[in-house]
Amino acid sequence: xxxxxxxxxxxxxxxxxxxxxxxxxxxxxxxxxxxxxxxxxxxxxxxxxxxxxxxxxxxxxxxxxxxxxxxxxxxxxxxxxxxxxxxxxxxxxxxxxxxxxxxxxxxxxxxxxxxxxxxxxxxxxxxxxxxxxxxxxxxx
Length: 140
Known about the structure:
Elements: H1 5-10, E1 28-32, E2 39-45, H2 49-60, E3 65-71, E4 79-86, H3 98-126, H4 131-138
Antiparallel strand pairs: 1-2, 2-4, 3-4
Helix pairs in contact: 2-3
């Protein structure tokens, strides 16, 4: 007997704690490939396309990242699997490990957030708001 799509969603076991990061959670796990050199798969728990695509774009800015892509194994699983492969770009620079490239991508995303926060704060102040007033106004 086939199950309708609506039943799959209504019978889903998604709990709030399955979406929120807890202090004891292991957020990222690396699985190095045994078949392809300089390749690892990173499993990001409790993340989705938003973070994965942003990180993928950052990794593609690194000329030593040969391949980077991600997948969401199943829509009801809040996990992203990202594969990163590094290789030389012909410049003679040392090839970083996939982990080092991944960390550089995360640092780049962190820098983007910092820049966004600064621009957002400047924009609020230019309009006469303080950050505290703005947060108070929209949290009610």
